[in-house]
Amino acid sequence: MAELENPTVMPRLIGFLSSLLQRVAEANDLNRGFHPQKISVFHGLTRPTISIQTYLERIFKYANCSPSCYIVAYVYLDRFTQRQPALPINSFNVHRLLITSVMVSAKFMDDMYYNNAYYAKVGGISTTEMNFLEVDFLFGLGFHLNVTPTTFHTYCSYLQREMMLQPQPQPQLNNIAAEPSSLYSAGRSSKLLHLCFSEDESSHQQQQLAV
């Protein structure tokens, strides 16, 4: 996805990822009463007042990591939710999961990156908490950090296709366009939603995991 280097593409990607995560978080918020969800170090006591889009835009502005890091961070979030089905993305943990996934992807992908203290300031948390989040995230991933070119291309292709379906300018979070049918099932109201692909390189088939 060479288009990532285009300065007009990244703002759209940030907007799309934000709206996607917003939909998943809100859906899982509604299903907390139907499906038990564990409390983890990623959970805040209250919902952050800053929106997901504003938070991700802040990360994009100050992290200065390569564009590919945001694709890899998306892959990591997908892997995390698949490996930790009792910890779905919701409004109480999405911000901490975001800052942690971007930081971990930057460390893995980029030759130069900021330290944990810097990312903690960007994310509005303490360095100590940032350190704990990183460790828990790595264990949650099973230290599965490598992203093959095929997997990277699969996620890029999906995001590129879905971004093309989005109207311009990017809609506000309180006026989100209809969910893509490839990601959500008709019975989504009673399920925990995750953003899942199969990483089986023999098939490369997109899968939905609904727990």
Automatic annotation (TrEMBL):
The keyword Cell cycle applies. Keywords: Cell cycle, Cell division, Cyclin. Pfam families: Cyclin. The keyword Acyltransferase does not apply. One of its GO terms (molecular function) is protein kinase binding. Coiled coil: none annotated. One of its GO terms (biological process) is cell division. SUPFAM superfamilies: Cyclin-like. Belongs to the cyclin family. Cyclin U/P subfamily. This is Cyclin.
